[in-house]
Amino acid sequence: MQNVTDRTSNPFGMRPPFDRSDPGDRTAVFGYGDANADFHVIGDHSGVHGGASTGVPFTANESGRAIQDVCREVGFASGPSSRPELENCFWSYVHMCCLPDGRRPTETEYADCEPYFDAELRAINAHVLLPVGERATDHVLWEYTTQRDRLELDMPSLHATEIRGRGFLVVPIREPTDWVDTDRDRLVSRLEAILGRDYRQTKGVATTVG
């Protein structure tokens, strides 16, 4: 089943659960990209992975540019860096709302945003989830696999590996500002290998928001 929408940004019309941004600042950085994507890149929040100035995840800071660069190399992204065209890929954050000075969300604020993130993830219904950084990886492994209690949250070891989830293949990504040596190349090679085979996962999740 395909999603029918011509919207690239916030294709399902999500509304932020709260507004704690400074007056005149952007309220939230919504999900962005191909609503029928097989690959879903999941970041933490705009203070970590960028986008508060552009409204697009993974833009306008070092971490965002590193993720975008990988997506370009494997054919997911093209066009301007501030608002790229995405094909077969969707970008979003666990915590969509913008906060003053890019501060880290509280646990309550993460919890407030989680149902919105979950609804969008299930609406996209991608086959491959790519959580970026420790927070997003921890959340994805707890919520969408049965593996978290068996795994140490050791991002250097988990980086660019494959973990089978409940209807998803999860490929954790180490925080880009921590990449060393071959981390980038390992991620590119992993994605190219997945793209070169039948990566589709057996699905058992809803495909609509509601």
TrEMBL record:
One annotated GO molecular function: deaminated base DNA N-glycosylase activity
Start and end residues of each stretch annotated as Disordered: 1-25
SUPFAM superfamilies recorded: Uracil-DNA glycosylase-like (SSF52141)
One GO BP annotation of this record: DNA repair
Biased composition (Polar residues): 1-11
Keywords linked to the UniProt accession: 4Fe-4S, DNA damage, DNA repair, Hydrolase, Iron, Iron-sulfur, Metal-binding
Entries under InterPro entries matching the protein: UDG_Type-4/5 (IPR051536), Uracil-DNA_glycosylase-like (IPR005122), Uracil-DNA_glycosylase-like_sf (IPR036895)
Domain Uracil-DNA glycosylase-like residues, every copy: 30-143
Protein name stated in the entry: Uracil-DNA glycosylase family protein
